[in-house]
Hints:
Blueprint: E1 5-6, E2 43-50, E3 68-69, E4 75-79, E5 85-89, E6 95-99, E7 105-112, E8 115-120, E9 123-127, E10 134-139, E11 149-151, E12 154-159, E13 163-168, E14 173-179, E15 195-197, E16 202-206, E17 211-216, E18 222-227, E19 243-245, E20 250-255, E21 259-264, E22 270-274, E23 279-285, E24 289-294, E25 298-303, E26 309-314, E27 324-325, E28 330-333, E29 340-344, E30 349-355, E31 365-367, E32 370-374, E33 379-385
Antiparallel strand pairs: 1-30, 2-33, 3-4, 4-5, 5-6, 7-8, 8-9, 9-10, 11-12, 12-13, 13-14, 15-16, 16-17, 17-18, 19-20, 20-21, 21-22, 23-24, 24-25, 25-26, 27-28, 28-29, 29-30, 31-32, 32-33
Amino acid sequence: MSAVLIAALAALGQPAAAAPAAAAPEAPAAWIQPDPSTLRRVFGVRYTRSYADFELLKTNEEEWTVPLISPDGVRLYVGTRTGILEALDLATGESLWKRTDMGTLGYGMAEFRGRVLVGSDAALVGLDPQIGKEHWRVEIEGKLAAEMTVTGTVALLPVRPNTLVAVDLVEHKVLWRVKRPTPDSITVRGQCPAVIDAARGRVYVGFSDGTLVALDKDTGSTVWVAPLGTRKDFFADVDVAPILVDDGKALLTASYNGGLFKLDAETGNRIWHQPLGRITGLVRIDRGLLVASLGSGQVAALYEANGKVRWRYKVKKGYPSQPVALEHGLVAFAVSKGPITILDAARGRPVQLITPGSGMVVPPARSGDDMVALTNEGLLLVMRRGEGGGAAAR
């Protein structure tokens, strides 16, 4: 029998009735939990595979590497906390190759010119996608802590602690490195992915000292620094990838303890600020909406124009991952102690819940009609829109 229960009611999140006054700029009206008959299948599970059997000694109950679907939609790369990296045929689940010597894997992976880019311990390595052979290695002096951003022939790598490294993917060398001071106070796990402003030749990236920094893309030199977090308090981190809006004239970003900000992209000056705290993830949705994940165990829709709250959804237990935008006005996210949840982004109502038996701390990987998730217990779910159902672990 399948370990996967589609739309399991026991894991159904409850919508928050009203947020505490300090947590949001406004308290939207509550809505009533829908009847279970309103749930439907958006994604079906085509097959699953368990990586739990490969773990001899459990020292960490979380998986922190996001699977990668190759750009051509043919291969799936899966990395685990035990240093396993496996390439699968996405359609069938057949193993193409597997390595068990990758050490501590980084947060995200990518493909570039016939190579798979993987963070392995304190290095970036380029592997052959067909057989897994290592072709080159660049020491980056830390673990890859967020999604890498590839622009042209350069990879921008958020590296612990509090560093952004630019690597030339042709010459296989570090081009520049920017490091911010690491706060003495407690910070949020993870770092901010770099965002490219091609028109200005800039990179925007956040740091755990509570700053969003604009850098020259070619040299790494600082253009401006915007302080957003309250550094005297815990969790000043700017971990949310900034979003370019208003035809590239402005940025939307957030600090965990500082709230949501709109900044002038040219100068970094503040346009407005909403004190909506504990933002850990942010994605832009159609209809002028943002969807934010909150460390308080909530997901909220925010109006792009002013940052005010449209609706809130509270998970039953745990906290949500970075949200992932889907077509047809839907948004998906994983929950650390709950189901993969798909919501109607306009209303915040659940459309589908996929319960794999344990939670997830990293978001699902998604490409076209395919979506893949890796649970904290090492169960891989390979899903497809409108297809599949349940399946036994391979």
